[in-house]
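Appendix C reproduces, verbatim, an entry submitted by the partner laboratory led by Prof. M.T., so that reviewers can inspect both the input and the predicted structure.
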Amino acid sequence: MKKNVLVFGLISGLIVSTLMAFSMIYMYNNPNADHGAGSMVVGYLSMLLAFSLIYVAVKNYRDKQNGGVISFGKAFKIGLLIALIGSTMYVIMWAFLYNFYMPDFMERYCAQMIENAKATSTPEEVQKTIAQMNEYKEVYKSPFGFVLYTYFEILPVGILVSLITALILKRKTVKLA
């Protein structure tokens, strides 16, 4: 199980980290690119693509290493460990990019969100957005806050995929052909 988790976790992390790095570098170098819902969709689709390996890993373990049976708990544990490895690689890649390539990301991101709010919101809502963005900037200054926010961005996707995978693949007895 350990080798299965490690191999699929590393591949998953490589996929999600690489796709995130390319998309963030593209967005950073193209200020006129769509930074709204389109980029979020691309980001979460890349997470789903990477975490789809959870299904492959659990099925592989169940069918080839565990005699065709697996409990919900064991399947969920495998998925969760893979999600943690992939998410950790994502956090490390983002920390590298943020600190060495785009240290003004948070300033640019917050300015863009405030501009978006001005176009569609009331003055009171804009003030709330400004306050929220200032709060985000403060949290991002702390290494703990930075890591926590970044994990919170990706890990729930991995947990959800692990949960769905465990529900689909759990099997108490071997099916005879």
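The CA atoms of residues 51 and 158 lie 6 Å apart. Additional entries are available on request from the coordinating office.
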